[in-house]
Write a structure and sequence with these properties.
The protein is mainly α. The protein contains 22 helices and no strands. The radius of gyration is 25 Å and the shape is globular.
């Protein structure tokens, strides 16, 4: 353990980024998958209703069809379960909304029900790490349904329509398995290799002793749209832990993330470990059936882990070449390193042996976020009602879309939501005359905007919102044409009200637990590092013990970085022990490097050896 005495960091003035929040990033490398899936899912039910002259029922079929947006980053075995869960969750929220709408017409009661549903949906989506588009689509469906004219006798039929469309969406989501059954886990492994290569390349570019392990190497990740996306995909990596649009992007908003440690370059290493952990989870979710391809992917993820632990000795070009091959259709590249042996594959076994967290253990840290969502959505809906706007659910959904892992990210999302929605209402005003040509034109416009939203949203949330907004406005016209001017005005006002009130609610509900989580993660890192050091000190330590110690320490470091990222974006709390976080990360990664050497995954460099003084190990 280091003898340095950590000093609490000095609180600095908070900056509210504007330009950074709107900066465009790289598109996801699978942006076309959700875009095409939503079109394939929405089109058949919509066109069938047009043919039957019952486009007024399209709200319910679209509720099920939108489930096709989820789980595109998951292997197909896990995707089948995730999509089924999304459909059931959508049906549950829709059922509550339709029953409430049939029992009362009191707008205040309906807004209250919608706010509670939004909080539950936010907590469950974050707890299950369902990924993009998170809770926003579910909240839109349930909130819009609360204000749809309804009788109790109509509820079963409307739910049946949504269930049928949801079943079709499940089939659409699973269809690519017929063509490329192992595509998701290959992409996840490729992302891990690319992230490791990015970090290793930066370490190689630095000079001087200790450049590879000073805890401050790696390319910057502060462009407002990267972070874990350095792994190459806007839907995987650390984003699996978030709401579908953030995740490790906390590392890149200009105020938080890796920069919390005093140097934005730390984010590259954190992104690499997050991508590796995501790759392991992807591989584990495919099941335990052994195969040559699966074992080859396991070995490649281990290669990424080793490159992160000892970046100075890694070959970035070789890692990138493996990643490019994985994205193709050929066989999984064989790792030809003679030091690769069965002991490397203890990593998956260690992951499988990791105990699962309890439901309360997952939900408890999300309590402040759920309270923010409930309060903000309720107040936004009430404010909209007070202004006399007939669709308060727009303000409610706007507030629900704001809440991210911390206040800084919530501010950025508010800026993105306002800019995207205001641009979107102008686009709707231009397109409305075309949509009013007839039911078929209306459905075709909805399909075009559905595709555009998913094609653009991975570059930045505001850009996707430019298409989401006219889509939401067109949905209101399924029951009949509306006055374009009134829709544009109400949507613009509700957007501003929802963003303003929602952000004020986020300021009012503090998240004091964020700092406590950092303290717990620091303790976990210290314990994991001590356990790894004990294993290193034991010359008779079994390979399984070393691998389990390395795995636990790597996971603890990933959790620490995520906790520090989230906490550094909260405004009303005590100063975080940033220096202690940096020291813990530096010593932890040096211990990981020593463990890698002890396992024989790297050659022993002069002056290094397999000693137990992990504080002085240089990869």
């Amino acid at each position: 353990m280091s003898s340095a005495t950590p000093v609490p960091s000095v609180r600095t003035a908070r900056r509210l980024p504007l330009a950074g929040a709107l900066r465009l990033g790289r598109p996801s490398d699978i942006w076309f998958k959700p875009a095409l899936s939503v079109v394939a899912s929405v089109a058949p039910p919509g066109l069938l209703l047009v043919a039957l002259g019952r486009l007024d029922l399209a709200l319910y079929t679209m509720a099920g069809s939108l489930c096709a947006l989820y789980a595109h980053n998951r292997p197909y075995a896990a995707r089948a379960r995730a999509l089924a869960g999304v459909v059931l969750g959508m049906l549950g929220g829709l059922a509550v909304a339709l029953v409430a709408a049939s029992l009362t017409g009191n707008a205040v009661v309906l807004v209250t029900v919608g706010a509670v549903l939004a909080a539950v949906q936010k907590a469950l989506c974050d707890a299950t790490r369902i990924g993009p588009p998170g809770n926003v689509v579910l909240t839109f469906v349930s909130s819009a349904s609360l204000f749809a004219p309804q009788t109790l006798g109509q509820v079963p039929g409307h739910l049946a329509l949504a269930a049928a469309a949801g079943a079709w969406a499940w089939l659409v989501g699973m269809a690519p398995a017929l063509i490329r059954p192992h595509g998701p886990e290959r992409r996840a492994t490729a992302h891990a290799l690319d992230a490791a290569a990015a970090y290793a390349a930066t370490a190689a570019a630095r000079t001087g002793p200790g450049a590879a392990d000073d805890g401050l190497t790696g390319p910057g990740t502060d462009d407002g749209n990267t972070g874990a996306r350095a792994a190459g995909d806007g839907n995987t990596g650390a984003r699996a832990a978030g709401d579908g649009n953030t995740g490790a992007r906390a590392a890149g908003d200009g105020n938080t993330g890796a920069r919390a440690a005093g140097d934005g370059n730390t984010g590259a290493r954190a992104a690499g470990y997050a991508a590796v952990q995501s790759a392991w989870q992807s591989l584990l979710s495919t099941g335990n059936r052994p195969s040559d391809g699966r074992r080859a992917l396991d070995r490649l993820v281990v290669r990424a882990e080793v490159a992160l632990a000892a970046p100075a000795e890694a070959d970035p070009e070789r890692l990138r070449a493996w990643a490019r091959t994985l994205r193709g259709t050929g066989p999984v590249p064989a790792v030809d390193d003679p030091r690769t042996d069965a002991s490397e594959l203890l990593g998956p076994a260690a992951e499988r042996a990791t105990p699962r967290r309890t439901l309360w253990g997952v939900l408890a840290p999300l309590t402040p976020l759920a309270v923010r969502t409930a309060l903000g959505c309720a107040l936004a809906g009430y404010a909209s009602l007070a202004l006399g706007i007939g669709r308060p659910y727009w303000a409610l959904v706007t507030a629900a879309a704001l809440y991210q892992a911390n206040l800084t990210l919530t501010w950025s999302r508010a800026v993105q939501r306002v800019v995207g929605n205001l641009a979107g209402v102008l686009l709707f005003a231009a397109v409305a005359p075309v949509a009013h040509l007839g039911p078929l034109a209306l459905v075709l416009c909805c399909l075009a905007f559905s595709f555009g939203a998913e094609a653009l949203i991975s570059r930045n949330y505001w850009l996707g919102s430019v298409c989401v907004t006219p889509l939401a406005l067109l949905v209101t016209e399924f029951a009949g044409p509306q006055r374009t001017g009134a829709l544009v005005t109400e949507r613009a006002v509700d957007t501003l009200v929802g963003a303003l009130v929602g952000f004020v609610a986020a300021l009012a509900v503090t998240n004091r637990r964020a700092g406590d989580r950092v303290a717990r993660c620091l303790t976990a890192v210290d314990r994991a590092r001590e356990a790894a050091a004990r294993a290193l000190a034991d010359p008779q330590a079994a390979p399984a013990v070393l691998e389990a110690a390395r795995r636990d320490l790597a996971a603890a470091l990933v959790d620490l970085r995520a906790a520090a990222d989230a906490a550094s974006g909260e405004w009303w709390q005590r100063a975080l022990p940033q220096e202690r976080v940096v020291l813990a990360e530096q010593s932890g990664h040096r211990t990981l490097a020593a463990t890698v050497r002890r396992q024989g995954l790297l050659p022993t460099s002069p002056g290094t050896g397999t000693g137990t003084d992990t504080e002085d190990v240089r990869p």
